[in-house]
Amino acid sequence: MKNIFISALFCSLLFAFGAKAQTKSDIEKIENYLNSVKTLQARFVQNASNGSVSEGKIYIEKPNKIRMEYYEPTNILIVGNGDYIVYNDKDLDQVSNIDYDDIPASVILGNDVKIDGKNIKVASFYKDAGTTVIGLDYKGRGDIGVITLTFNNSPFELKQWTVIDPQSVEITLSLYGAQIDKPIDASLFKFKKDSGKFKLKKGR
């Protein structure tokens, strides 16, 4: 189960991709959006192909700060302070660390995203009047695999991300009520062990 939640930090809806090739303008628009967003906070719904569904809140502040609070009954807390990520299973009272090098954090959390075909290359692309979907492949990053980002076109904004974890479970995280570039309390990115006893209920 832990791999499902780790993978859920970073990705979006997997489509049957169309034949239309991306243009330079498409790539620049995606890069500019990802690089321009400094903070993001939203509610999320996470769906996995094994049937599990979770909800919660996500907070992102660049570079590399992230907090994911899962509503009951999941009771998972994930906190990244920019140097390392803490994964806290509250029900099991277990805490472990995740290395940023082991996750595709730069697409969502980095300040300088470059889809240049070197470190990040386009694996798939789809665009219609309402949606742009791009699959990004991290070259030489082991088990990370393709990350798929889904954007609304008007206004242009990130709505979903999807990844397939090492157990071949497809995980989609959808954002709702996103607030962009609003200040976020710095304490949210600091993990405290006693916060692991707190269970977040829907509506909080």
Key descriptive features of the protein:
42% strand, 11 strands, 3 helices, eleven-stranded antiparallel sheet, 204 residues, mainly beta
Question: How would you sum up this structure, described in words?
Answer:
The longest helix has 13 residues, at 24-36. The radius of gyration is 16 Å and the shape is globular. Residues 12-19 have low confidence and may be disordered. It is mainly beta. The protein has helices at 2-8, 24-36, 105-109; strands at 39-48, 53-61, 65-70, 76-81, 85-89, 94-98, 120-127, 131-138, 146-153, 156-164, 170-180. It has a single domain, classed as outer membrane lipoprotein receptor (LolB), chain A (Clam), CATH 2.50.20. A hairpin with a 5-residue loop joins strand 10 (156-164) and strand 11.
Number of domains in the coordinates? 1
Contiguous uncertain segments of 5+ residues: 12-19
Oligomer: single chain
Which whole number gives the mean pLDDT?
Answer: 83
CATH H-level superfamily: Lipoprotein localisation LolA/LolB/LppX
What string gives the helices and strands in order?
HHEEEEEEHEEEEE
Treating each run of at least 4 consecutive H or I residues as one helix, how many helices? 3
Supply the CATH class: Mainly Beta
Q: Helix amount, in percent?
A: 10-25%
Please provide the count of β strands. 11
| Global shape | globular
Structural class: mainly beta
Largest sheet: 11 strands, antiparallel
Tell me the Rg in angstroms: 16 Å
Main sheet: which strands, in order across?
A: 6-5-4-3-2-1-11-10-9-8-7
State the end-to-end distance. 24 Å
What share of the residues does DSSP label as strand, in percent?
35-45%
CATH fold naming: outer membrane lipoprotein receptor (LolB), chain A
